[in-house]
Structures are given as structure tokens and as C-alpha cells.
TrEMBL record:
Keywords: Membrane, Transmembrane, Transmembrane helix. It is a multi-pass membrane protein. It comes from the Bacteria. It is found in: Membrane. InterPro entries: AA-Vitamin_Transporters, EamA_dom, EmrE-like. This is EamA family transporter. Belongs to the EamA transporter family. PROSITE patterns: PROKAR_LIPOPROTEIN. Signal peptide: none annotated. It comes from Microbacterium algeriense.
Length: 304
């Protein structure tokens, strides 16, 4: 079996870090639009603008696609629409850092399911401990988390798992970024009913349109392109744990842009998930350098 080189692992890790850095800052910009457009309106505009940009840049040719390719792209689009909509609905009610950390339960569970190595399971446990610390902070902190916001972010976490699986599927079946462009287009069509009022509002205000475009680039175009490329270089279990870096950047973005506090418990949670990310990355590099690939050192093939 062909095994990706260690340099490929480093590139994959760098792509995930770039995605984790871009997404929360895009979300912080998006949160400033919620009072005017609402979370679902912002979601619709963000996805629609990102879809238009990628379709123009990539110029996909879906007429040549097979039935499995179309199914993968459509399901990818469903996951994008639901994941983003419920995420924005959540951060309209709870702080950005805790929201991203709770949402990470989705990829964390996926990583736990896909791993058979004791070391990987241990790092998943470290990341889970970080989520527990964050949950304690949300319960006993000065600002308890809104229950409906927590429900929304847990729904988003479920669709995040679907996103990871379908992103890997699209990356395996459709060359280049054509699958991502069409997936975003499908998501934009699904979100049209909630996006029409928001589109009418931004059409009359160029400043709102600019903020929506910045949100689309930071929250969709850059991170999804990076993640699609990363999933071609990293196992899904490693990708899932590496995403635990996102709460750290989300906490930073919430503090810098939205003025949200970073309590000692939140910082401890962030430190734990960063440790999990570093540990799992070093583990997969060592596996690829020292010996044959095990059953979970390559992306898991998904069913047709």
C-alpha cells in the first residue's frame, strides 16, 4: 500500500491549522451581521457568495460526473448547509470559543470510532477532557451557556461529522475543487428560502455586502479548500483530532474581535486540545517513518 510521505503529513497539518485559523475569525465577522440579517440569513449569504466565487474560479464540469459523484456532492452540500446554519444559530446565543469547543465533540467522536491505537485513544481522551473542562466553565462561570444555543451547537456537531465523511468522499471521487464548488452551490440552493430577505437587505447597503463577502472568504472558501486538500493527505481520525485546534483560535477571535472573556478554565481546555492535536500529529508521522501502515493510517474508504 502506498503511504504518504512525512512531508505530506506536514502539509496536511499546515492546511488544517490554516483552516482552524481562518474559520473562527470569519465567524467573528459574521456575528457582527447577526443583529441585521439573523444567523440563517448570514449563513445563506456566506454560502451563496462562496459558491459563486468557487464556481467562477474552478469552473466544474458536473455533466461528466457519475451517479456516485453526484450523490457525494449533494450530500456534501446538505452537510454544509445544516452545519453552518446551526453553528451560526448557536453563536448568536453562546460565546464563540465554547461553541466551537462543544461542536468539536462531533469530530472527536469520529476520531474515537476510527482509531484502534491505544496512543490515539489516549489523545482523544485528552481532547475530551478539554471539552469537559469547558463544559464546567460554561455551567459555573459568570455567564452560563444558553441551553438552546447548546442544543443548536450539538446539532451542528452531528452535521460536522457528516461534513468530514462527505468531504473525504468528495475528495476521493472528484478531482480538484469541483466537488467543493458544487457542494457549496447545493447548500446555497437549499438555503434560498432563508436568504432572500438577507439578500434584499445587503443589496441596499454595500458595507453589509462587504462584510458578508469577507465572511464567505474566511469561513468557506479558504477553510473548505484547505480541508479538502488536507483530507487527501491525512487519515480522517488524525484530521478529526487536529480540528481540536479550532477552539483555541475561536477563543482568540472572540477575545480580539467580539470582546469575549477567556477565563482560566477556558484557557486550560484550549491547552488540552492543543496537546491532543500535537500528540496525534507526532504519532502519525512516527508511524509513517518507522513502519508499515496499520489499518487506520490511511483514510477510511467510504461506502458507495
Amino acid at each position: 500500500m502506498h503511504r504518504p510521505a512525512a512531508s505530506g503529513t506536514l502539509v496536511g497539518v499546515a492546511l488544517v491549522v490554516g483552516s482552524c485559523l481562518s474559520l473562527p475569525f470569519g465567524a467573528a465577522v459574521a456575528a457582527q451581521l447577526f443583529p441585521v440579517l439573523g444567523p440563517w440569513g448570514v449563513t445563506s449569504l456566506r454560502v451563496a457568495i462562496a459558491a459563486m466565487l468557487l464556481v467562477l474560479i474552478v469552473r466544474p464540469r458536473p455533466r461528466r460526473w457519475t451517479r456516485p459523484q453526484w450523490i457525494a456532492a449533494v450530500l456534501f452540500g446538505v452537510s454544509l448547509a445544516a452545519m453552518n446554519g446551526f453553528f451560526y444559530a448557536a453563536i448568536d446565543r453562546i460565546p464563540l470559543g465554547p461553541a466551537v469547543a462543544i461542536e468539536f465533540l462531533g469530530p472527536l467522536v469520529l476520531a474515537a470510532v476510527l482509531t484502534r491505537r491505544l496512543a490515539d485513544a489516549a489523545w482523544v481522551g485528552v481532547a475530551l477532557l478539554g471539552m469537559v473542562v469547558l463544559g464546567v466553565d460554561g455551567l459555573i462561570g459568570a455567564e452560563p451557556l444558553d441551553p438552546l444555543g447548546v442544543v443548536f451547537i450539538l446539532v451542528a456537531a452531528g452535521f460536522w461529522v457528516m461534513y468530514i465523511r462527505m468531504s473525504a468522499r468528495v475528495g476521493a471521487l472528484i478531482p480538484g475543487s469541483g466537488g467543493l464548488a458544487m457542494g457549496l452551490l447545493v447548500a446555497a440552493v437549499l438555503l434560498i428560502p432563508v436568504g432572500i430577505p438577507a439578500a434584499a437587505t445587503v443589496a441596499a447597503d454595500p458595507q453589509l455586502l462587504l462584510l458578508a463577502a469577507i465572511t464567505a472568504v474566511l469561513s468557506s472558501v479558504i477553510p473548505y479548500s484547505f480541508e479538502l486538500a488536507a483530507l487527501r493527505r491525512l487519515p480522517q481520525r488524525v484530521f478529526g483530532v487536529l480540528l481540536s485546534l479550532e477552539p483555541a483560535f475561536a477563543t482568540l477571535a472572540g477575545w480580539l474581535i467580539l470582546g469575549q472573556d477567556a477565563t482560566p478554565l477556558r484557557m486550560l481546555a484550549v491547552a488540552l486540545v492543543i496537546a491532543a492535536s500535537v500528540g496525534t500529529t507526532l504519532g502519525v508521522r512516527r508511524d509513517r517513518r518507522d513502519g508499515p501502515a496499520g489499518p487506520f493510517t490511511a483514510p477510511i474508504p467510504l461506502p458507495d
